[in-house]
Each structure stands twice: as C-alpha cells, then as structure tokens.
Amino acid sequence: MKKLLFICSMVALLAGAFTMQALANTDDNTLQTVIDEFEALDENVYTPATYRLAKMEYDRVKALIDDPNATADEINAAIDALNKRITALRVRNGSESLWKTYENYFEMGNIYSGPGNLDPSNTRGLLTSTHFNSLTAENHMKPSLLSFGGAGEEGTFRIYEGSDHVSDQFVREAQENGITVHGHVLVWHGQSPNWLNGGTNGDYTREQARENMERYIKTVVEHFDTYYPGVVTSWDVVNEAFVDGVSTIPEDANWKDYLRQGNQSGWYKAYSNGMVEGEDPSDFIYDAFVFARKYTDAKLFYNDFNMYQDGKSKLTAMMVKELNERYKKEYPEDPRQLIEGVGMQSHNYIMDTPPSSVENGILNLLEAGVDLIISELDLFAWFPWNAQPTGNSFAGYMDLRDRGIEHIIGSQGTEEQRNYWIDRGITNGSEIEVIQAEIFAEYFRIYKNYAASIDRVTFWGLNDMQSWRRGHNPLLWNSDFSPKDAFYAVSDPEGYLGVDPYYVKPVPASKVAEIILDYNDMKPAYRNGRNGGNFISDVARLMGPKKYFNNEPHSIKVGELELSNRAYRRAVFDFLKSHPVMEDKIIIMPPDTFFINSMK
C-alpha cells in the first residue's frame, strides 16, 4: 500500500513538474497580466458577444495552466488569443429608445403580429413601444386577411363599420399609443383571394380585374382613413411585381420584360386578357397607384426585395420614373407624384449583401426622385436561405450565443455552403453574432448618410425565435428578449465599429440650395431680365441666409455640438422641388457627406 502511495505521489510530482516546465517557458508577467486584466473586467460594461468570446479564451488559458500535458506554445497561443479578445471588446452603448436615437434621421419601425404586441405588461409590448414609433402588420393587412372569395365571386370583406378584425385592433392600438402605421399591402401576387383577379389559373379579363382592384383598394383605404384618421400614413400599393434574381441588366433593358408574368401573377394574367392597342399587362401597377391616390392621401410606395441588386434596383427606378411621368401627363392638376417612394425590403444575408451593395441600391433608386423606406429589415446568418443548421421550427431553434461548431453547419446546399462559416475559421455562434452586428452597424451608417431621403427603417420582427426566418437568427434580441450585439450596433453604429462619426456643419438655406442644384447639374446660366445671373445664384439669393426655413431651425444641439438639421435641409429640398421653374430638374437629395464639416 505504501509503495502504491509512493508511486502515485511521484506521478503527481512529475505531472506538476511538466506543467511547471511549460509555464516556465511562458512569459510569467504576460500571463499574470492578461489574467488579471480579464478578471478585473466588469461583464456588464461590454457587449454580450464580445465579452462571451473573451471569456471563452480566458477559460482556455485557465484550463491549459491546469493541464499537465499543455505545452508552452499552447499556453502562449492562448494568452495571445485572450489578449486579442480583450482588445476587441466593445462597450455596451445601448439606446434607451431606438426611435428617439434616430428621431432626427427617420422613423424606427417594427411589425405587429397580433393582439398584445403593444401591451406594456409583457416584454414584447414594452420593447415595441419603447424602441419603435411606427408599425407594419406582418400579415393582418394583406388581401387574403382582409377579404375572401373564389374566382367569379363578388368577394366578402372582413372589415366594415364597427368591425373588430385584428387589423382594426392593430390600428386602434397604434392610434392609442401615438404610433404611425404603414399599410402592407394592397396589390400583390401572393396572399390574395382569387375573387380579385381570378388567380393564375383563372380567365378574368383586365376589365373584371380592374373593377375588383378599384373596389378592393377603395374599401380598404377608406376603412382605415375613416375610422382611424391619420394613423395609416403610408401604403405599400404594389408588392414584389418583379421576378427574382435580377443582379444585372443590359443597358437597353425594359422594366416590363422583368415582371412576374401570368404563371406567377394573377394580376399580370388578367391584365393580359382583353387588351386593346396601346395597353400592356404591366398596366395593373399604374392602375393600382391611381386608385390608391384617388381614395387616400397616404404616401404611396412600391415595395420589393433584393433591392441591393444593381439590376433590380435600376429596373424599379425605371418603372417609377416612367409611371410618374405618365401620371403627370394624365393628371397635371395633381401636384404630388403618383409613386412617392420605394420600399427596400432588405431581407439580407451576411454572406451576399455587403454594405456597398446596399448603398448602390439606394443610389439607383434615388435616381427616380422619390423617397425610400427600409421596409422589412433582417439579416440572415446562413446560406442559402433554407440552410439553417437547426431548421426553421421552434423545436430546433437555438440562440446564436448557444451555438458551438457543430451547430453552425448548414443543413442544406452544397458542401461549401453548408461549411460557409467553418471554412472561414468561425467556430461558434458568438463570432457570427459579432459579424452580424458589424454589418448592421455598417447598414445604419449608410442609412444615416441618406436620411434626408429615408422615411423609415422597419425591422421585420423583434426577437430571433419569433422571426419568420428564426433558424437564421436575423434580429436584435435573443429568444428571451435579451439584447444581442446587433442591438448595441444599431444603437451606436460608430461606437460599435470604433470609427469616428461625421459631424455635420449647419449651413443656411441658400448654401443648401446651391449644393443641391449643383449636385443635380443645374449649372447652365439663363437670362432672367436682370442682365445676367444664373439659376443657382438667383435661387440662393431668393432663399437667403435663413436660420429658419418652413419653421425648421437650420441647426440642432447635440450636447455641445451644433449640427445641421436634416429636417431643415429637407424643407429646403421640398421648396426647391415646388419652385415653378424647377419642374423635374431635381432628381436626388445629396447624401449628408455634402454637408460634412469635419470628422471627430
């Protein structure tokens, strides 16, 4: 027995000796310093994912120190990795209210999925009312939810005077909470009952479909305007009329050639049946907007996905410009544009929707001279869309923070697609969470830069588990509504990325006008009866060095900083557009970089 104890003691001593030898070959001061540095950190100061990643490396260092088989190289590598994770920590600079953070830029929106979504007694309701001042119905204002009936039937509406449909409850709750509503959607090839257009297997004529379209649009928009006045401020009039996957187009492309045709769209099919000379199946888009303009004063949008694609965003801009020009000729007495904005759905993917593509899509669409909405924003973590490692069901759901290397392998697609993250050295979901947050931050830097032309940024959901693409973990909160790094990135994009914000110098109206006109290539001189002068200088003199324009001050105070007021610049822009001699010459509001004074 004594001999056995002696052997065990010697083994322990030898093991300890090997561990001491490994430690002796490390830099003891560096080792203790990095351990002390991490242990002194306050977890609550740093964003969840970046702290979690540092803690993983700390645990690895501690485990290696206690491992008799650990080599000096392994320990030194772990120390280096921990140092890097500590350096990469991001401070939690979360917004107390996202809509207040962005109130000088654009509205912040989210979705309404059912009763109780605005109830402050539950976590979802409290987060929604705290962070968002605009809502879009996820489903309850789509055609199949507001009416029903088969092909050849008159069609029955679920909304009427005194109705208490879920859409009524939604808009009423929004009204009571001072939240605006974006209507989604009036005319769509999907989720629409066949009584409207006969469906893709029907035989409606364009006249039948047109009559039903007018009846539907009139009934719906007048219902909400009458019983909840001023709440529904905008509508997606037409949704997803273009085909999928239009990444590029030839220079001579015609937007009408890229529409969903009769095998995909009942509207296109019906409008193809019974045409006379000069008519086209695409006319259903124009008619939809004309009817909407006839029956509501809400702002009218076209909405579609993959607008980051160069081809699709250019086609959409072509369509908007052509239909707006047609409307101006046919209804010259209406001072408003027919299509006043485009919704960029923005169901984006980490691996193929880079910020540069998003900005390019914005620039393409702004060429149409209309405003934008980022209408359905989320950011998917796996490729392709159906390759979620744990599937799309609630039963298989996992937060990103809980995903190890075995939980980030795609379930479908090619081997390259399934191993997308592993092939890039990613070993766990927390690393993906940081990448996702960084991309969200880059998006919001772009949105802020074009805020003069963006009405609203709407997230398509609150937490990952309740998302329509829950397997992709695409949103700002975890399943228990704890914030992900994405929340902190959206709250303070510059802070999360560790970059300097742009400080924008206040400028008088005349200077704003000069920059806008110059940007729109309005340089040619013209005679105005005063022996010379040019358009830019005359307009600048007209506007003068005003401190206020349309009751908007040209600057706002943010702490000690005096910044240019975007609402003021928008007021100047709107004035210029309405100037009698401007006509259609103003195409685009320049990005805020035109007003940059200096960087921090």
From TrEMBL:
<comment type="similarity">
    <text>Belongs to the glycosyl hydrolase 10 (cellulase F) family.</text>
</comment>
<comment type="pathway">
    <text>Glycan degradation; xylan degradation.</text>
</comment>
<keyword id="KW-0326">Glycosidase</keyword>
<keyword id="KW-0378">Hydrolase</keyword>
<feature type="domain" description="GH10">
    <location>
        <begin position="92"/>
        <end position="493"/>
    </location>
</feature>
<protein>
    <recommendedName>
        <fullName>Beta-xylanase</fullName>
        <ecNumber>3.2.1.8</ecNumber>
    </recommendedName>
</protein>
<dbReference type="InterPro" id="IPR044846">
    <property type="entry name" value="GH10"/>
</dbReference>
<keyword id="KW-0732">Signal</keyword>
<dbReference type="Pfam" id="PF00331">
    <property type="entry name" value="Glyco_hydro_10"/>
</dbReference>
<feature type="signal peptide">
    <location>
        <begin position="1"/>
        <end position="24"/>
    </location>
</feature>
<dbReference type="GO" id="GO:0031176">
    <property type="term" value="F:endo-1,4-beta-xylanase activity"/>
</dbReference>
<keyword id="KW-0119">Carbohydrate metabolism</keyword>
<keyword id="KW-0858">Xylan degradation</keyword>
<dbReference type="InterPro" id="IPR001000">
    <property type="entry name" value="GH10_dom"/>
</dbReference>
<dbReference type="InterPro" id="IPR017853">
    <property type="entry name" value="GH"/>
</dbReference>
<keyword id="KW-0624">Polysaccharide degradation</keyword>
